[in-house]
Amino acid sequence: MDINKALRVEKKKNIRFYIYMCILAIIIPGALWATSIINGFFIGYAIIMELLIILVILKRIDSFKLEYKYLNNKLTFKTGLFNKKNLILCDQVALIHTEGIEEDMKVIVISTVKFRNSRFKPVVEGLLRKYPKMSDEYKKIKNVNPDKVFYYLILKKGGLKKYTMLGDLFTYCARSSYTDEAIQNIKISRGYTID
């Protein structure tokens, strides 16, 4: 899978979706106007349908939005429409793990600091049970630094843009460890094909 081609295809699919939703949003009141139905029930139904179309469009934009920028060992990123910008200090990243593939991929970043980021949470046993493939690597890191507190962040939104962000995390976070799943997804982001 060529990630740049997949990103272009994803962008075209999203544009097509937005066009279809806008056409649907125009057809519903147009059908009411063309049939000359002036009934409170149908007008209320049309208003509810328009609101649902707007919510679906906002949800789609929210789930595929990912912006990030690297500057001076700091990776600032924003996922979704309504989230604040977040910050990752690349030297402090201890482990990167991925779960899933393509649009459903989750990127899990484990860091030693929680610097100006409210989304980082302390690593707990529940997280390690939920992601058992990551727990082995985490235990190795924890054995080396038993007194440090580690924090985690899960990136779920962003669609296929998470692959480019993962490739850049691999470039900038030179001291961190990577699980086998993360390495496979990094290879995909670099253009290698996986059998």
Q: How would you describe what is shown here?
A:
With 195 residues, the chain is α+β, with helices and mostly antiparallel strands. The protein folds into 2 domains: 3-64; 66-189, no CATH class. It is 51% helix and 19% strand. The chain is built from 6 helices and 8 strands; from the N terminus they run H-H-E-E-E-E-E-E-H-H-E-H-E-H. The protein has helices at 3-35, 40-64, 125-130, 132-144, 161-172, 180-189, and strands spanning 66-71, 74-79, 86-89, 93-99, 106-111, 121-122, 151-155, 177-178. The strands form 2 sheets. The chain has a 5-stranded mixed sheet with strand order 6-7-5-4-8. The longest helix is centred in the N-terminal third of the chain and has 33 residues, at 3-35. It is elongated. The chain starts with a helix and ends in a 6-residue tail after the last helix. 20% of the residues are buried. The mean pLDDT is 88.
Task: Summarize this structure as a short list of keywords or feature phrases.
195 residues, alpha+beta, 2 domains, three-stranded antiparallel beta sheet, 6 helices, 8 strands, transmembrane helix, Transmembrane protein
